[in-house]
Design brief:
- The protein is of the alpha/beta class.
- It has two domains: about 130 residues, Aspartate Aminotransferase, domain 1 (Alpha-Beta Complex); about 260 residues, Type I PLP-dependent aspartate aminotransferase-like (Major domain) (Aspartate Aminotransferase, domain 2, 3-Layer(aba) Sandwich).
- The chain contains 13 helices and 15 strands.
- Strands 2-8-7-6-5-3-4 form a seven-stranded mixed β-sheet, with helices on both faces. It has a four-stranded antiparallel β-sheet with strand order 11-12-15-14, with helices on one face.
- α11 packs across α13.
- It is globular.
- The N terminus is likely disordered.
- Bound molecules: 4'-deoxy-4'-aminopyridoxal-5'-phosphate.
Length: about 425
């Protein structure tokens, strides 16, 4: 599916009413909490919490080693979670490596695939929109291998400029690593075109899907990428777990990057041989409970339907951008069809001040550089205020935000 053509026009009004699924959405005093920071981390639905409690309680045991039946059952649940997460993004069942999160997944690709495939003179193409997680691992591996990094600029509405990328790409590029949906601007990448650009020179395409998987359908086979990474905690699942997807062929050729238990075939002091993927990349006792919770989160999201989620959040995005766009002291970042994320600045009010005053009205937004300092430099701003939506978000959350902005203005003597 071409992500740029999801049905934004059909998206009004927002349709989901799922607040009751989320026990975290009330304040200690019992008032509604207007949580608009899902791009940082998502609140958890009761279904995920119940699954985690059960896995950590009456079902708990280790995986892959126990000879007793509880361990065999837990191993089955853990491996079923892998299959579930792979299916969730259109992969085959042995193509998911569990990691601590998207950050670790990118570090894994850099240290394993990167070390094996990059040499002096090779180039890596990133964009000005990237999260630090999709910059620093490449800087480290570039330093270790002698490869160099090029940075694609943005269009006027803050998408990755693929016309520029097409001009910049050359035979020395071995990898393009782009964000699928920006955590700052919500910009959605035209993945089909990015894949064509990468593959035209035989380079691989890695997509940072952290902010895409909670907001829209993702099918790695249709997208045509080579690596896809994301974190469970932004998808209504637990912290401490995420996933790397890569096709079986690519994983089979990648060397291990961390050594330890569970990733071996045979160990002697003379020579160690390694297990097949994905186990080759999962050294040590894995995040068992978290993997099972991750799968429960995928079930939760799929029960709602990702088209429905996208339509709901697109309607909210559209309304918030319209309301903010009417205020003549507000600068909006990103395109109008950003996926569930709205970044903005109010003249004369620092985002941190706005965030603090909003908190007094039980509205939670993110203020800062969003782990994208090069993007802040590119836009020549120190920070933005960011509101991000979830399946439980509603017009009431936007009303509370707009009301809080009015209060902040009054406090700052701005009318
Ligand atoms: N990429 C993007 C676009 C993100 O939004 C985030 C989280 N803010 C990350 C990478 C890193 O994810 P994690 O901290 O879960 O590893």
């Amino acid at each position: 599916m071409d992500d740029r053509h999801l049905p934004v026009a059909l998206a009004e009004p927002p349709t989901l009413d799922l607040r009751a699924d989320f026990p975290g959405l009330t304040t200690p005093g019992g008032a509604p909490w207007h949580y608009l920071d899902t791009a940082a981390t998502a609140q958890k639905p009761q279904a995920v919490i119940d699954t985690v409690v059960r896995a950590m309680g009456k079902d708990y045991a280790t995986v892959h080693r126990g000879v007793y039946s509880r361990s065999a059952d837990m191993t089955r649940s853990y491996e079923e979670a892998r299959q579930r997460i792979s299916r969730f993004i259109g992969g085959r069942e042995d193509e998911i490596v569990f990691t601590r999160g998207a950050t670790e997944a990118i570090n894994l690709v850099a240290n394993s695939w990167g070390r094996a495939n990059l040499k002096p003179g090779d180039r890596i193409l990133l964009s000005a929109l990237e999260h630090h997680s999709n910059i620093i691992p490449w800087q480290m591996i570039a330093e270790a291998t002698g490869a160099k990094i090029d940075v694609v600029p943005l269009t006027a509405d803050h998408r990755i400029d693929l016309d520029a990328a097409e001009k910049m790409i050359g035979p020395r590029h071995k990898l393009i690593a782009f964000v699928h949906v920006s955590n700052v601007t919500g910009s959605v990448l035209d993945v089909g075109r990015a894949a064509d650009i990468a593959h035209s020179v035989g380079a691989k395409l890695l997509l940072d899907g952290c902010q895409a998987v909670p907001h829209m359908p993702v099918d790695v086979a249709a997208l045509g990428c080579d690596f896809y990474v994301f974190s469970a905690h932004k998808l209504y699942g637990p912290t401490g777990i995420g996933a790397l997807w890569a096709s079986g062929d690519i994983l089979a050729d990648m060397p291990p990057w961390e050594g330890g238990g569970s990733m071996i075939e045979r160990v002697t002091f003379e020579k160690t041989t390694y297990d097949v993927p994905p186990q080759r990349f999962e050294a040590g006792t894995p995040a068992i409970v978290e993997a099972i919770g991750f799968a429960a989160a995928a079930d939760y999201v799929d029960a709602i339907g990702r088209e429905a989620i996208h339509a709901h959040e697109a309607a909210l995005t559209k309304r918030l951008r319209r309301e903010l766009g009417r205020m003549n002291d507000v600068t909006l970042f990103g395109p109008d069809d950003g996926a569930g994320i709205v970044s903005f600045l109010i003249d004369g009010i620092h985002p941190h001040d706005l965030g603090t005053i909003l908190d007094d009205g039980d509205v939670a937004i993110r203020a800062g550089h969003h782990c994208a300092q090069p993007l802040m430099d590119y836009l020549d701003i120190p920070a933005t205020a960011r509101a991000s939506f979830a399946v439980h978000s509603s017009e009431a959350d936007i009303d509370a935000l707009i009301e809080g902005i009015g209060r902040t203005r009054r406090i700052f003597g701005k009318g």
